[in-house]
């Protein structure tokens, strides 16, 4: 996150750190992507986090990547479901969404606490210009390697028309994605934040409106972050989470 501040305990209880077992040590897990807890046994993330989905765990309820906190829950990933129409081009990523089914018993995987809670899904589109929140452990203006502490920042929803202007992203956007950020630059998501949440207020609750997906680098003028449009995938999410259990 560029231009972010530390997330206070319990303020982003749906935030997930997706971790893969590091190649050289046969013990340690390394953060690779963000994700969002939407049900006790289901995490939503970006499709482009998929290469990393073998031998994965998710960590919930933690703020620091380098400390083991008593509030943390580490859970193995049972199955990864990447969208059938996931597609990458050199300039954009389409249908950038995946579901992770967690290991558990009797439909209980993550246990709800003050620090671990599910996020609601949105039920309608939100207005352009609305202020929403992004969070993650990704690269910052000071560190390409990312932040040890979970960071958050406020960004504004940018209209598809504005974001498709030639000096922004031109004609490569489609309705599986939207832009959010600040066209002057400075505040943005970045590498390592991918798959993590963009949450907005809807019906007096926080809803998971977007997933960090891509962008032309980070924090640059006229190059806002691009987010997976979760409202476009509500039927897909329902179908996948109800079919497998
Ligand atoms: C990335 O490389 C990435 N500024 C994620 C988000 C953004 C750019 C790049 C948005 O995963």
Automatic annotation (TrEMBL):
Domain of life of the source: Eukaryota
UniProt domain Peptidase S1: residue ranges: 1-242
Compartmental location: Secreted, Extracellular space
Residues spanning the membrane: none
Stretches of the chain forming a coiled coil according to its record: none
Listed name of the protein: trypsin
Taxonomic placement: Eukaryota, Metazoa, Chordata, Craniata, Vertebrata
Residues shown, of full length: 428 to 672 of 672
